[in-house]
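Postdoc handover notes: sequence design on the structure in folder B. Input tokens:
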């Protein structure tokens, strides 16, 4: 047996007044169940889809059973979550007729990828058939899956804040979240080496393209302009931490660092021009995004023009702006277009 003070330094805590788990050598656990319950409810109750037949929206989370936790062993974060959910949704046709339905998510867990999560949509007993069911099964399921994906991302980032790794020298390093591979992945990677994906190299000329989008929001140009430049509002519609310095030359960082850029020009209520990039793009490459806000009398039309988009990222960038910016803003602040 080692003498007092001569043991493995990873286990020595008697010299720390707070007896901190130095270097996180011991197994520790943080319960994320209550936080997860609140976050899932908030995300799912924001789901609303509109189509040619009418509108469908999630109105209640009637069952939310399960648990979530984060375990820390030797500086590695291991995530566990398992949930069973039932949601209620209401559909309203263009004629004003309402229909009641449900959504079942029997097994939302760390054992399955988001795309593998089973989501069942139906009408409650004795409800007549309606085309709104197809709308909810298609677009509603997609948005529910997006909400679940946002929850998982937030669990790995927001909830882990403060899980600091104390070093032997007393410095602190934020732990990088890691997921324990599923059984099938462990078998696949057991005899192979893997490398962390790196951004594409700098200095290589890449083909680029332009994109353009239009959308209409039920709000004034002044209010909609504020949504894009106010940090708290950006965090609200992206459901993720953000840093926004809304001045000429000011920088922004969105979606936990996935999107970054700089404001080139700001004309209140009229126009925003920014350098914009996604982190997987070639290092140092930015596109130029221009947003024009057009007053339509009670509505605002936004015209987006993007130049310098990597050609291989054209569709992903277009869909990203439509889904995570435009649809995210409508769902969060209720600026959806009118139905005729």
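Designed sequence:
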């Amino acid at each position: 047996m080692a003498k007092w003070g001569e043991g493995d330094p990873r286990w020595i805590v008697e010299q720390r007044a707070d007896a901190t788990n130095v270097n996180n050598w011991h197994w520790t656990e943080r319960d994320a169940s209550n936080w997860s319950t609140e976050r899932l409810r908030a995300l799912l109750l924001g789901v609303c889809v509109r189509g040619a037949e009418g509108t469908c929206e999630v109105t209640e989370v009637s069952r939310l059973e399960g648990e979530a936790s984060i375990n820390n062993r030797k500086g590695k974060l291991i995530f566990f979550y398992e949930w069973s959910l039932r949601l209620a949704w209401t559909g309203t046709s263009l004629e004003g007729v309402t229909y009641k339905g449900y959504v079942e998510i029997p097994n939302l867990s760390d054992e399955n990828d988001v795309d593998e999560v089973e989501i069942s949509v139906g009408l409650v007993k004795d409800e007549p058939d309606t085309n709104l069911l197809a709308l909810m099964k298609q677009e509603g399921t997609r948005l529910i899956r997006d909400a679940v994906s946002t929850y998982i991302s937030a669990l790995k980032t927001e909830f882990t804040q403060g899980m600091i790794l104390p070093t032997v020298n007393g410095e602190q390093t934020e732990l990088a979240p890691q997921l324990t591979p599923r059984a099938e992945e462990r078998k696949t990677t057991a005899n192979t080496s893997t490398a962390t994906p790196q951004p594409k190299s700098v200095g290589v000329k890449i083909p680029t393209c332009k994109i353009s989008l239009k959308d209409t929001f039920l709000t004034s140009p002044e209010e909609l302009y504020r949504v894009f430049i106010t940090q708290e509002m950006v965090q609200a519609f992206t459901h993720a931490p953000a840093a926004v310095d809304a001045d000429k030359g000011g920088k922004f960082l969105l979606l936990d660092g996935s999107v970054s850029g700089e404001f080139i020009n700001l004309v209140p209520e009229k126009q925003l021009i920014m350098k914009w990039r996604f982190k997987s793009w070639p290092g140092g490459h930015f596109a130029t995004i221009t947003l024009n806000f057009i007053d339509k009398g009670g509505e605002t039309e936004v015209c987006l023009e993007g130049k310098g988009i990597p050609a291989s990222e054209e569709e992903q960038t277009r869909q990203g702006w439509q889904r995570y910016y435009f649809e995210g803003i409508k769902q969060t602040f209720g600026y959806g277009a009118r139905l005729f």
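Context for whoever picks this up: The two ends are 81 Å apart (CA to CA). Don't rerun without checking with the PI first.
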